[in-house]
Amino acid sequence: MAEFASPPLPHSAQASPAAAAGTGTGAGTGADVNVGVGVGAARGAGVGVGAWVGSAVGRGAGYLLQATDLHSHYGASHILHGIDFQIARAETVALMGRNGMGKSTLLRTMLGLVRATGGQVHVMGTNMTTAAPFQIARAGIAYVPEGRGIFPNLSVKENLIMAARAGRHGQADWTFERVMDCFPRLRERLAHGGAQLSGGEQQMLTIGRALMTNPELLILDEATEGLAPLVAREIWRIVAQIRQSGIATIIVDKNFAALSALADRIQILVKGRTAFSGAADALREQPELRQRLLGV
Ligand SMILES: Nc1ncnc2c1ncn2[C@@H]1O[C@H](COP(=O)(O)OP(=O)(O)OP(=O)(O)O)[C@@H](O)[C@H]1O
Ligand SMILES: [Mg+2]
Questions:
Q1: Residue nearest to atom 24 of ligand 1 (CA)
Q2: What integer best gives the mean pLDDT of the chain?
Q3: How confident is the model at residue 40 (pLDDT cuts 50, 70, 90)?
Q4: Contact of 208 with 157, CB cutoff 8 Å
Q5: Model confidence, pTM
Q6: C-beta atoms surrounding 193 within 10 Å
Q7: Is 101 helix (H, G, I), strand (E, B) or coil?
Q8: Three-class DSSP category at 50
Q9: Is 243 in the pocket of ligand 1 (CB under 6 A)?
Q10: Which ligand 1 atom is at minimum distance from the Cα of 272?
Q11: How many whole angstroms from 121 Cα to the centroid of ligand 1?
Q12: pLDDT band for position 214 (50/70/90)?
């Protein structure tokens, strides 16, 4: 697509045709992109905050990532039926639902890994519905997929160093040392090959690798799936630390207790549609609804 030939997230002066409606006053696209500005901002302790304020806020790019009436198919199977989803800077959003309800498909569609068959995806105010996954990643979104995917033949250190890059605005808050501080277990295994790690260590490595890209948004699909409770607890501690640092996160997991303690909002999918979207407290107070939608 021609509109993505230029860097995917231009400053307004070089805005793509898709984003042009909102350039200038921002009023043109204001209705759908301004709403989330500042949500959760009070907590943001620093990562990228200055850079973000200096460039995007005020130009109608309130949401880091936004899906509007999103549809997608696998072959003839219609999987997503008009999903609206959005996450603002420094927000933590939990995406929940029973198996096969479309959580991973929603993430994959927003990331350009599955082609949307209807609706739109905006990344920081720019229409990226047809962008390639690498363009979306480059815009500052790091993705930890289900089942991880580290390089088994590389050492822990090599896996991390290979991923290192500055963020969109040149921020390099997450250095190798900082990642090491966050994951003491990885520090002890720096020379180990990826394949020699336990499931929990692999998950730590994948998250550590994602942080090395200095993202604005971290997406964790099945954050603790298949991990022993103690290891899962360690992952939750790390996720809380990441949240504290000001990085926005979308977390998919089955653990309602852990997610409701962490997330600003929970969105629940049922058969490719949003069945609930709201504060964790609202769901905590409605055990019947929770039981019906999540089975917990
Ligand atoms: N590559 C694929 N080809 C065809 N159908 C698929 C494919 N991936 C997923 N599906 C189907 O799409 C639907 C949604 O799957 P998806 O993986 O998005 O669900 P999920 O909510 O992430 O589930 P889980 O909790 O098991 O990870 C399911 O019916 C699934 O069988
Ligand atoms: Mg899934």
A1: 99
A2: 82
A3: very low
A4: no
A5: 0.81
A6: 16
A7: coil
A8: helix
A9: no
A10: 14
A11: 20
A12: very high
Q: Which residue bears the tokens 């000001």?
A: 246
Distances (CA, A) of 200 to 78, 214, 228: 34, 22, 8
Q: How far is the CA of 171 from the centre of ligand 1 (A)?
A: 35
Give the separation between CA 127 and CA 150, rounded to whole angstroms. 30
- pLDDT tens digit string along 61-112? 589 999 999 999 999 999 999 999 999 999 999 999 999 999 999 999 999 9
pLDDT tens figures, 237-289: 999 999 999 999 999 999 999 999 999 999 999 999 999 999 988 998 999 99
How many residues comprise the chain? 296
Label residue 209 exposed, middle or buried (CB < 10 Å: 0-12, 13-18, 19+). Answer: buried
Secondary structure (DSSP) of 185-217:
HHHTTTTSBGGGS-HHHHHHHHHHHHHTT--SE
Give every CB contact of residue 146 below 8 A, 6+ residues apart in sequence: 104, 221, 222, 225
Which of 26, 108, 19, 97 has its CA nearest to residue 67? 108
- Closest ligand to C-alpha of residue 100 is 1
* Residue 181 per-residue DSSP state: H
